[in-house]
Write a structure and sequence with these properties.
- By secondary structure, the chain is mainly α.
- The protein has one domain: Arc Repressor Mutant, subunit A, CATH 1.10.10.10.
- It contains six helices and three strands; from the N terminus they run H-H-H-E-H-H-E-E-H.
- The chain has a three-stranded antiparallel beta sheet with strand order 1-3-2.
- Helix 3 crosses helix 4 and helix 4 packs across helix 5.
- The longest helix has 20 residues.
- The radius of gyration is 22 Å and the shape is elongated.
Length: 129
């Protein structure tokens, strides 16, 4: 039987690195802190259900104007415009102007792949249950 004095916390670990080669490889492959911060901002943008609806509308509909996105999402045009402004600032969507109208689309195939993978992951979890 072990006593409370035999139980160690992570702070009490006698060996700080078990596999130095692996730690070195992972450390070398780790993105720079500014890239990690940018990635966290992207995932933060994607964490909002309203913005996700806008992105999903663009994923399904391709290029769309603000009023069509708002109608598809069931949101106000001003709310959609605000979401699109944030998404555009972080290069998730891009805009094309035609006269007074602005048409938005996903910025590139990477955004589409990110969403497709996330949706597949959700579907995979549902199948496993």
């Amino acid at each position: 039987m072990s006593s409370d004095s035999d139980v160690r916390t992570a702070d009490d670990c006698a060996i700080r690195v078990v596999d130095p080669a692996k730690v070195g490889m992972v450390t070398a492959a780790m993105p720079a802190p500014d890239k990690i911060a940018e990635l966290a901002q992207i995932f933060g943008l994607l964490a909002d259900p309203g913005r996700l609806r806008v992105i999903t509308a663009l994923l399904e509909g391709g290029e769309m104007c603000v009023c069509d996105i708002a109608a598809a999402c069931g949101h106000s045009e001003s709310g959609v415009s605000h979401s699109l402004r944030l998404l555009r600032a972080h290069r998730v969507v891009r805009v094309r102007r035609s006269g007074r109208r602005a048409y938005y689309r996903l910025d590139d195939s990477h955004v589409r792949m990110l969403l497709d993978v996330a949706l597949a992951h959700i579907g995979h979890e549902e199948e496993a249950v």
